[in-house]
Amino acid sequence: MDGRGVLADLLGNAPEWQERALCSQTDPEAFFPEKGGSTREAKRICSRCDVKADCLEYALGHDERFGIWGGLSERERRKLKRRAA
Fold first, then answer.
1. What is the span of the domain harbouring residue 37?
2. Pair 31, 55: CB distance under 8 Å
3. What CA–CA distance (Å, rounded) separates 23 from 4?
4. Is residue 79 within a helix (H) or strand (E), and if so which, with residue range?
5. What is the Cα 2 distance to its own chain's centre?
6. Rounded Cα gap, residues 22 and 26, in angstroms
7. CA 16 to CA 21: how far, in whole Å?
């Protein structure tokens, strides 16, 4: 598990899709770059992930404010939410 669902995992209620996520098999730092850091590697991994849509839905539903989720950055998720509203 890569830091994304650590609390959920500790509580025993991590979403089932997280086990199949490619990010759970890679370096978590790629998904949580420092401000101004590159998101390219994380987005590349997300683009090949079978649970990308589940991940994005989770991030939007849980108001995740940090990191790359479902192939989108925090800024991109905010734009998506504004357009959907």
1. 6-84
2. no
3. 9
4. helix 74-84
5. 10
6. 7
7. 10
Enumerate residues 6+ apart whose C-beta is below 8 A from 4.
18, 23, 28, 31, 67, 69
The pLDDT score that the predictor gives to residue 15 is: 83
Q: Is residue 55 part of a domain?
A: yes
Q: How many residues does the chain have?
A: 85
Domain count, the chain: 1
CA distance 23 to 42: 8
Name the one residue in this structure whose structure tokens are 């990010």.
23
If the chain, 85 residues long, is cut into consecutive pieces of 10 residues, what is the mean pLDDT of each piece?
47 77 90 91 96 95 94 95 85
Please report, for residues 21, 35, 68, 83, the alpha-carbon distance to residue 51 in angstroms, rounded to integers and kept in the order given.
Answer: 6, 26, 14, 23
Is 1 part of any domain? no
